[in-house]
Amino acid sequence: MTGLVILGVAVALILMFVGLYNGLVRLRNEVKNAWAQIDVQLKRRHDLIPNLVETVKGYMTHERETFEAITRARSGAMSAQATGNVGQIAQAEGVLTGALRGFYAVAENYPQLKADANFRQLQEELTSTENKVSFARQFYNDAVLKYNTACETIPSNIVAGIGGFKKAEFFEIKDEAERAVPQVKF
């Protein structure tokens, strides 16, 4: 009888361990999926920027500094993505947002540009992409919160330690200026 009780407890512990482990794997995969969604939107953003710049170049011939700042910021953001480091990517994307903010401020001085259909379409696509990036970041951070909570709470923290599950990094923008919402007015 005692042997059956010990066997029952052992089976229950094994099943609990497997359940917790599988739950952590599922949460870790949700974090990876959420990051992939951010990656997709950032790629779209990076692809739209050269089209926007080329459309505007004809109107803003003497604004070379603005174009160069956007190009540098885009290159920096793409390089940061190659590292896979969430903190570096967040910082680089903040710089790119700031460059775009400056670009739109300069673009306001060109009435012909504001009336250009290609420019308006690209601006709308970029705005839509910015919204998608924001939603993807929020989804990613929600997934990270669930995963990190599971990694830190009892009893799943024991399984996380044994299974080698590490806390995920939130997508945070630390600079207050980068947190400001870009103001695009046409």
Please write out the topology.
Layout: H1 2-57, H2 64-83, H3 86-107, H4 111-115, H5 117-152, H6 156-163, H7 176-179
Helix pairs in contact: 1-2, 1-5, 1-6, 2-3
How do you describe this structure in short?
The chain is mainly alpha-helical and 186 residues long. Helix content is 81%, strand content 0%. The chain has one domain (33-153, 167-179): de novo design (two linked rop proteins) (Up-down Bundle).
Model description:
The chain has 186 residues and is mainly α. It has a single domain, classed as LemA-like domain (de novo design (two linked rop proteins), Up-down Bundle). The protein has seven helices and no strands.
CATH class: Mainly Alpha
- Summed up, the domain count is 1
Rg, Å, rounded = 23 Å
Derived from helix and strand composition plus strand pairing, the structural class reads: mainly alpha
N-end to C-end Cα span: 81 Å
* Average pLDDT figure: 85
Overall 3D shape: rod-shaped
Examine the secondary-structure arrangement and name the CATH architecture. Answer: Up-down Bundle
